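ok trying this again, last paste got cut off
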Amino acid sequence: MSSSSSAVTPFHDEPSRFRRRWFGPTQSFWGVLFALPMLGLLAMFKFWPMAYAGWLSMTDANLTQPSRHFVGIDNYTRLMHDTAFIGSLETTAYYVGATIAPSMVIGLGLALLLNQKIPARGLFRVLIFLPAVIPIIVVPVLWQFLFNPYGLVNEGIKKLGFGPVNWLLSQHGAVPALVIATAWRLTPLCMVIYLAGLQSIPADLYAAAKVDGASMVRRFGTITLPLLKPTFLVVIVFAVTLTVQNFVLALVMTGGGPARATTTLSLFVYQTGFIGFRLGYACAAAIVMLSIIVLFTLVNLRAFRTEE
């Protein structure tokens, strides 16, 4: 009797199993259902505009003309021969490289320092992170004042025995000024990401290394750096994406000048589309910028995966 009942029980349990599988609160059905509103918003405000920009990049769309015609890859072909576009690529490469290198190094140093048990550590974290929470439009206005010929930066240079620099109106000073302003805002963001990575490293590893007599430098090289590799990837991709897309600082501080010296790729897209009204051409430049960011991300993912 018991054997027959045990054979029948699984059959009677099938409906309840089916209900739990599809309607249970912990099943993937509910996860997808709850994610649908956010997926819909992403599709509406992220993926559809990107697809629409990709289509516009293959037209001669102009904000002053209602009609538009399909031109294929003509916009992309013209970009490759456009000296202004190529110059913006070169400026962006210099601007991004000069900004990210010190931001990552200084951010890592600050994270290592603030990860130690020092007095008023929480206060220092807040003060150092303040530049990152200042509204983005305030940052270029602040640095315009600081880089004024009679501003605090030139006053400091004079005290060091050097002559004043016309930062924002000279081709040799405008880009370094833009780099300094951007790194000032980017470094605290890198520091916070590094701090999160450092705090995920088990303290037992450092304790064991100390017992073995490893110095601070050796602990940093054998424990901290290897375990921070995923964090380095996040910082690099985040910093490059943020810097390449940033055009507010260049727009407000220099307007892309002097002589287009600070016209980055993102500012080129803005000026072409909203000042020159060449919407299709601007979308083509924006697609190129997106492709560069995606390619850079894929290369870094591949490089870090290979190192692992």
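PB: full thing came through this time. The chain has one domain: 74-307.
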